[in-house]
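Try this one yourself first.
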């Protein structure tokens, strides 16, 4: 799997960089927000938005098609305390995680978007809405608070992962993959400077971005194997209700659907060298 991913990204990066000396290359940065959708944010609530940003290199093949290599980062979080239903409010789960992403994406402009002046720049070519699709690899590491201290959740096995009583449950990996889908709007501010507004959802292949996926483990096992902290973080409902809601085997999350995250923001790019037609019209 790792070999295939390395081959894929090496090939994609090579495609982006083969013509680095050519004259259709954009470098840019973007700043915006990150949001998470999953077992702790089931209603696609945007109150959990945190800062995000990144760097990108774009290769414009022509006025319609381009490819982009991204290095992105952001922070996601959510908490059952903000849910509008009784089940989540009593479940009392929450998490936060930084995300570091490397991805490639292809963009299609619905209108011709001139890369720079000197080609066919005109007012009607200065902007273009576009759609994008791509693939990425990202790293995450969910954490929560226990007695006011930050603790990393994955090593704890809050659903019984890694304990001999649950041999079928392994610790989940903190590096995963995602498909990128989204779109935006490009506007050329000048011959060399471009502005981009973009939003893109990441459909991930993990259900543990929030450390919540399947069923409650036996609290006696968690207490015996991991101690009071693991027992509490496996079912923190006792903090808000008299009787804990996490019966052994009861659904703690929805393992049918994987977690997603969303990046959106404003980017500014610089065209390394403007394209100029060698033959006069």
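Now uncover the answer:
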């Amino acid at each position: 799997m790792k070999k295939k991913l390395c081959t894929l990204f090496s090939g994609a990066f090579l495609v982006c960089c083969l013509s680095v000396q050519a004259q259709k290359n954009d470098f840019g940065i973007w700043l915006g927000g990150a949001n998470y959708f999953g077992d702790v944010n089931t209603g696609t609530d945007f109150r959990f938005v945190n800062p995000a940003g990144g760097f990108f290199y774009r290769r414009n093949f022509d006025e319609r098609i381009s490819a982009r290599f991204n290095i992105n980062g952001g922070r996601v979080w959510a908490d059952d305390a903000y849910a509008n239903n009784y089940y989540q409010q009593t479940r009392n789960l929450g998490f936060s995680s930084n995300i570091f992403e490397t991805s490639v994406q292809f963009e299609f402009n619905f209108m011709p978007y001139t890369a720079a002046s000197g080609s066919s720049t005109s007012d009607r070519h200065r902007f273009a809405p576009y759609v994008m699709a791509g693939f990425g690899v990202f790293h995450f590491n969910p954490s929560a608070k226990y007695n006011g201290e930050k603790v990393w959740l994955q090593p704890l096995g809050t659903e019984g992962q890694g304990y001999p009583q649950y041999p079928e449950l392994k610790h989940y990996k903190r590096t995963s993959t995602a498909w990128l889908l989204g779109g935006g709007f490009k506007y050329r501010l000048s011959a060399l400077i471009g502005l981009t507004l973009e939003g893109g959802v990441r459909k991930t292949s993990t259900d543990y971005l929030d450390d919540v996926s399947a069923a409650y483990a036996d609290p006696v096992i968690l207490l015996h194997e991991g101690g009071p902290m693991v027992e509490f973080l496996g079912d923190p409902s006792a903090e808000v209700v008299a009787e804990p809601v996490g019966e052994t085997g009861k659904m703690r999350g929805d393992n049918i659907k994987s977690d997603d995250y969303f990046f959106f923001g404003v980017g500014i790019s610089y065209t390394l060298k403007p394209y100029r037609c060698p033959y006069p019209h």
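Discussion: The CA atoms of residues 143 and 152 lie 4 Å apart. Residues 13-23 have pLDDT under 50 and may be disordered.
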